[in-house]
Amino acid sequence: MFDLFHRSVLPAVLSALCVAAASCGRRDGGAQQSRAPADPAAALAAQAEKARAKARRLEAELEEARAEATRLENALASLGAGSGEAGGSEAARPASSGGASAAEASAAPTSAPARPSPSATAGSAGSAGEAPRAVALSAIREGRVPPGSAAIAALAARPAKNAPPISKTPYRGAIAIDDATGRILFADNPDVPCLPASMVKMMDLLLVQEAIERGERSPAEMVGVSVRAFKTGGSQVYLDPKERFSLEDMLYALMIQSANDAAVAIAEHVAGSCEEMVRRMNERAAELGMEDTRFSSVHGLPASEGQDNDVTTPRDMAILARELCRHPDIFKYTGTEYRVFRPAPRLFEMRSHNPLLQASSRIEGADGLKTGYTKHAGYGIAGTAVRNGHRVIVVMMGVGGPDPKTAKATRNAKLRELFDRAFAEVSK
Fold first, then answer.
1. What is the CATH number of the domain that holds 165?
2. pLDDT in the model for residue 122
3. Which of 198, 235, 297, 352 is an active site residue?
4. 201 is catalytic
5. Residues whose CB is less than 8 angstroms from the CB of residue 86 and which lie 6 or more positions away in sequence, other chains included
6. What confidence score (pLDDT) does residue 41 get?
7. Which of these is catalytic: 258, 297, 370, 414?
8. How many CB atoms lie within 10 A of CB 330?
């Protein structure tokens, strides 16, 4: 029996013990191997490959975005051809993206973008441009339209806090047009991306005025004040949530005082929220052919962390200014230099920031429109004046200088020069 155990059972037991020991050794070795420090070169190589894979995905997404942009541009071009318009703003845009020089513009004036007809703007049934307009505006509403240029995207995303000013002397870009015909009377770098600051309130005014003319709103209706409006900083009329003012009074505050709190209160009253108002602002800008404009706020204050800046160009602001001039009632807001907003005992008097209306720098025939300023953006203005039956619009943006006083003096002197030059050109 012992011999049988020795010959049969014992070898099997010993073999099993050896296998178990080897297995434990492998597991222990594997554990030791997993605890051993990774090869730095191998880790970096893996990270590099991961980054390359991400870059390939982003490149694919970029190509898709470009294809989408091309499709939308073709849709807009078809819209212009189908509706009999001048194809949006194509007629006014020079072949180079840098814009026409002053000499070129004076030598060969061209027409500004044709204003969309009411039927085209409304996208009425049966119009030839209905389908492409629906495609384009749907993409805009859904945020699928990429920025028109890398420069616009970069400026929109550029943080304003502690960033150096983008302004220049005498300006970053300027343009003057004949309001009646849209003919360009002067242009110097008109398509350069700029920060409009409070000039965005021109679009607020346009949307509200159009709503009034459609009968959707009344200047006499009362506007409440939210906590959000109350807490809005910068230039303001110090609204209190306990107060209510007429829509007309709020529009005066918007354009004379450039009140940011009034801008928020108006947006919430008219559109339900600032976010919805911004969506409408961008939609209207697209309808007008403001190709290089991206609104992100209703007031133009520097963007907060994680938000985009408002971006536009002198040419696009001229398009907006010309559209505003189609609504003569707006001049009572834009052409008023002084007005009492709140009577005593909390008396608040408003005085326009517009140098065209101020006694020390008044321009003959001036009646608007809007200024803008932040340290990052510099000074900007869209001004209009009438002489001898001709209305001229001058837009100047990104005016800078060694200090604010110098920059203001530069702006005022240059404005006078450009208005004189534009009126001389329009009267030829």
1. 3.40.710.10
2. 31
3. 198
4. yes
5. 80, 111, 113, 114
6. 77
7. 258
8. 22
